[in-house]
Amino acid sequence: MARVAGGLWQNLIAVQVYGANTGVGKTVVSTLLGRHFTRRRGKTRWNVSYIKPVSTGPSDEADERYVRRYAGHPVSTLFKYSEPVSPHIAARDGKFVPNNEVLVQRLFGKLKANARACAMSRGEMGFTLVETAGGVLSPGPSGTPQADIFRPMRMPVILVGDHRLGGIASTISACESLLIRGYDVDAVVCFDDGGKYENSKYLKGHFETMGISCFELPWIPDMEKCTEDEEIGLMKTYYDDESRAGPTFNLAGRIIDQHSQRLKDMKSMAPRTKNVIWHPFTQHKSIEKADDILVFDSAYGDYFQAKHTSNSIQSVEQKAESPLLFPAFDGSASWWTQGLGHGNPQLALAAAYAAGRYGHVMFAGATHEPALTLAERLLKGLENPRLTKVFYTDDGSTAVEVGIKMALRASCKRYDWDGSTEDVGILGLKGSYHGDTIGAMDASEPCVYNKKVDWYRGRGYWFDFPTVKMSQGRWTVEPPAVLKEDFGPSEYFEELDDVFDLGTRGHSPRYEQYIERVLDSLVKEQGRKFGALVMEPVILGAGGMLFVDPLFQQSLVRVVRRYNFASTSNTLEDENTWSGLPVVFDEVFTGLYRLGRFSAASFLQVHPDISIHAKLLTGGLLPLSATLASDSIFQAFWGDEKSDALLHGHSYTAHPIGCHVANTSLDQMQALSRGGLWRQYQKSWTTKATETSRGGPLAIHTDGSRAWSMWSKNTVMRLSHHPRVDSVIALGSVLAVSLVDKSGSGYTSTAAAGLRDSLLNDVAEDKVRVHSRVLGNVLYLMASMKTKPSHLTAVEDALLEKLGKA
C-alpha cells in the first residue's frame, strides 16, 4: 500500500504494457510505439522514454539492448537480476529484494523526472512506456502479482494479447484480471498470425462489446534459424516497413485520445457535480465554487487519489511536472466502513465470484450459502449465548430500525401495551445517534442531525454520563458538571486498561442509585413507558466521538434489566430471556474490530438481547448490515397471523454478493487478529504493570487482547499535553482529538475545521496529506485494520506539525 501519486500528468502520457502471457511480443509493441512517437509528425514534439521496473536474465538477452538497437532509446531498468526466471525466484539470490513500496516509489520517481524534463523543455510532451515482466499476474520480487504492486498509480494499460493456440482464453483472462483491479485498459494489441488461429479477429469482436479497442499488428518475422546478423536485418526491415505505420498510428492515436479524455473528465467533474449532485451532510451554500469539491479518481490501500485544486500548485513549472493526482490518507476510513484497504483484490474477486454465481436472489422464504455462512459466523464470533437469529438489511440505519421494531414489539407484547396508541419510547445516552431514517432518528435526542426534520419526535429519555479522555498524560473518567454531586469527583487512571478493568473497579453504587432515581421519576412519577435500551457500546460515533465510562454503561444495563417497568413479574425461566427492557447494542461503528475486538460489547462484559452490525462487515466494499436477536425477541413475532410477523425487508436483503464479500472480509480480519501486525500495536500499549492481571473475569478478553490502539501511545501522550488540545482518546483504529474552543464545544464549533483543511491542502509535496472529517471541535482519524505503523507515523507527524503551526 504505497503512498504514491496517481500516474497522471498534464504533459506526460505514462502507460503500462502488460502481456497476456510470456513471449507474446510486449517488447516489440513497446518498440513500435516508441519509434512511432519519436517520429510522429505534428505540432507536438515527443520525448520518449522506457522503464523496465524489473528485469531478469543475462544482460546480452535483456530488453535494454533490443530497444536501444531498434528504437534508439535507452531503457531505465530499476531492478535487475541475472537468472532468467520469475522475479520472485530471481530475487532470492539478489543483494536487495525491494518491497512493493520501494518498487513503486522508485518507478514514480522516474516518471516524475520524465515529466520534469518535459516541463523544462517547454512545449514538449512526454511519452513513457512502463513494460512489465511476464504476465499480468506474474509475481514481482516480493511475490505479489505485478497488477497489485503497480495498482496504486493506476496507469492506463496496453495489453498485448497472446496470438498462440489458447491465447484467446489467456488474453481475456488477463484483461478481466486488470479490470477487476480497477485498471483502465486503453487497448488490446494482438499480432496477426497469418490466419492460422485468428485470435485477433475473435478478440476484436469480444472487446468491442466491452468498449475496449483492439488493434492488430503485422506478424513478427520468424527468426528461429537465423543468425544474429540475419535477425538484426529482418527486424530492422520490419520496423522500417511503412506498412507498420498505419496500425501503430491508430494505436498511438487511441492512447493520446484516452489521455486527453481523462484530463477533460477530471477537469469537468467538479463543475458537473456542482450542477447535479445533492451531497450528504452538506450545506450547499458553503460550496461557493466548483474547486471546493474534491474529485477522487480512485483509491487503493489507505489512500485516495484526488485531483489537485487550482490553487494547490503555484508555478507553471511545478504544475507541469507535478502529477494531477495526489495521495490522501483516508483519515475517516470512508465514514468508518473501510477496514481492509481500498481496491482490495481479494474482496473484489469475492464480489465478482458471487455476482457471477448468483446475481440477485430474493431472500423471503429462501436461503443461500453466503447468507447462511455469514449468519453462523456472526453468532459464533459475538460469543453471546442470548443471540440466536440474524436479520439482514442494507445499512446501519435500517438495521437500527429493525432492532427498534424488534425491541418495541417484545416489550409491548409482554407488558400488554398498544404501541400504536400509547407513547412508548426508548432509553439511551445523550449525544448518541443511530442513523438517518425516521425511526432511528427518533431514538436520539434533538441535535443538528434531526431537530429540523419535520417528522422527528425524539421518543425517549437520554442519560447523561461520565466520559473517558486523556488529558495532560492521564486517563480521566470525568462526570458531567451538573452530576458531580451524584457521580462523585473525577477518577484518574495511569493506563487505558485500568479504565476497562471492571472487575477491579467493581459495581458503582453511585451510578446505579442515580439511574434508579431517574427511572423512578420517569416511570413511577410521570407514568412514561419505555420499550428498549438502545446505545452504542464504549464510543458514541456521530455524537462527537464520546468515550463513555464502560462502568456506567454496564451499570445502566444491570439496572434496566432488574427494574420493573410494568406491574408484571420480572422473574424469568431462562437466563437468556430478556428482562426489564430489551437491551439493544448499536455496534454499527464500534463493532467488528474497529475498537480492536470482534465485539465492543466485550469491553462492558454485557450480552445484549439485540446486536446491530454494519460498516466494517464488508470491509467497506458494499452496503450490508445485520441485526442479531435472542430467541425471546424472535418469539414476540411468532403467531398465527401474518401481521404478527416482522414485516420488514429490502429488495437487497441478504444479497449474496454482500454476504460473500462479508465472509471474505471476516476471514481477513480474523487472520489479522492473530497476526504479527496487531501484536506489534498491542505490545506498544502494554506496560510491565499491565502484564499482570488485575482480576475480573474479562480483564483479558478471550482473544488475548487488552485495550490497545493502532495510534502510538507516545503520540497520544504528546497530544494530551498540547495547549490547543482539550483531550484525546485512542482505542483500536480510532483517534479523536478534542480541540480547545473558548466559545464552546459541540457541532457549532469550527475549531477543528482549519486543522482539517491544513492537513489536506497546506502540505509540502513530500509530506503525507490527510483527508479527514470533523465533528464540531473534534477531529477524528481512523486507520484501516491493515495500516502499517510507518503510514500512521507519517499521519501522526503531520497532525502534530499542523497543531503546532495553526
TrEMBL record:
- Entry's InterPro entries? Aminotrans_3, Aminotrans_3_PPA_site, DTB_synth_BioD, P-loop_NTPase, PyrdxlP-dep_Trfase, PyrdxlP-dep_Trfase_major, PyrdxlP-dep_Trfase_small
Organism, by scientific name, is: Melanomma pulvis-pyrius CBS 109.77
Question: PANTHER family of this UniProt entry?
Answer: ADENOSYLMETHIONINE-8-AMINO-7-OXONONANOATE AMINOTRANSFERASE
Q: Which CDD domains match?
A: DTBS (cd03109)
Superkingdom field: Eukaryota
Q: Name one GO molecular function term.
A: dethiobiotin synthase activity
| SUPFAM superfamilies in alphabetical order | P-loop containing nucleoside triphosphate hydrolases, PLP-dependent transferases
Could you tell me which PROSITE patterns the record lists for this protein? AA_TRANSFER_CLASS_3 (PS00600)
**Record's keyword terms, sorted:** Aminotransferase, Pyridoxal phosphate, Transferase
Q: Name one GO biological process term.
A: biotin biosynthetic process
For this entry, the protein name equals PLP-dependent transferase
Q: Name one GO cellular component term.
A: mitochondrion
Where found, per UniProt? Mitochondrion
